[in-house]
Structure formats: C-alpha cells, structure tokens
Amino acid sequence: QLQLVESGGGLVQPGESLRLSCAVSGFTLDRYTILWFRQAPGKEREKVSCIQDWGGVYTFADSVKGRFTSSRDNAKNTAALEMNNLKPEDTGIYYCAAEYGGNCLIGRDTYWGQGTQVTVSS
Question: In Å, how far are 74, 107, 113 from 101, measured between CA atoms?
C-alpha cells in the first residue's frame, strides 16, 4: 500500500522553527518528486516547495523563501521541510505529495499524505 505520512507539526511561537517529515512507504522514493503544500484556514491550498527526484529544489511561495528548506533522504525513504523564523501567516495544514518523475506538478496519480497542523501563535 502506497502511503505518505507527515509528522512534526505543532504549536510554536513566532520566530521559532519546526521540521516536518514525510515518511514514504509502499514505494521507493528515489524516482519521485516530493512537493509540499499548505492550506491556511479559509484559503486555497498553496504550493510551497518541490524537491525533484534528482535533488533539484524549487520554492514556489515567495513568503517562505529564505526561511523554508526542502530535503530528502532516499535511503530512508523520507523527505523533510525545515521551517525557520516561523510567522503567524505560516499557520495551516501542511501536506506532502509524491509525483513520479521529476515534474513539480501534481496530477491524477499524485500520492498525498494526510497533513500535519502547524500553528504559529504567541
């Protein structure tokens, strides 16, 4: 069974950091691109970043550039999103998704995790 499980979310204060993990099972990660999305309350889902199967990294959300970093460990079948200097506007549910190949676009065959809540509040 193909599965992605996010973890690492929580409640933090502004300026603090979190590291989200995306554990993959049922397939080997090395041929998949991992994308990170988030959805804030009352807003549409937003693509945050993408790390391609070969390791290329793209950040799509301007508001997180310089603060969020994507990484992957194919040997451990995991990906991560390091989030620093968190702001209240980063609050939302964060999802990882896996797309076969090197495309940073989601499609019909994209696999999704269940999401993890990140809340940034003082």
Answer: 14, 12, 18
Are 97 and 113 spatial neighbours (Cβ–Cβ below 8 Å)? yes
Q: What backbone torsions phi and psi does residue 36 show, to the nearest 5 degrees? A: -115, 130
Beta bridge partners of 51: 34, 57
Q: Token pair of 46, please?
A: 């937003």
The pLDDT profile of the chain, 122 residues, written as one tens digit per residue, is 789 999 999 999 999 999 999 999 998 899 999 999 999 999 999 999 999 999 999 999 999 999 999 999 999 999 999 999 999 999 999 999 999 998 899 988 899 999 999 999 99
113 near 6, Cβ under 8 Å? yes
